[in-house]
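Fold in tokens:
===
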Amino acid sequence: MDENMMGVVFFIITGAVIFGSLYVFYTTRNRERMALIEKNADPSILKSGSNGTFRQFPIKFGMLLMGVGLGILFGSILQATTVLKEEVAYTAMIFLFGGAGLFASYFIAKKLPK
């Protein structure tokens, strides 16, 4: 296949996957709501973010990105100062500091008021 054609196919497939995922999400959500209406249940259980997990997402995402950034920095330092291969140094540090960032975000989010 031609390089230009590969790009077009990639964007078509990506768009189809996004559309399909959103379609399934919204039709499933609609069916759940209709089932609640039929059973005369309380619709307040469907509120988004009622348990506070949405407030914690920016903290988790920010700490993960900070950890990945530090991992890239320390991977560069590790690769320059040791005999490790570049791929090993970067990969190890990115995963190590990304995990440390998520671990730290758990304790920060635990201190947030409910």
Notes: The chain has two domains: 1-46, 49-114. The mean pLDDT is 86.
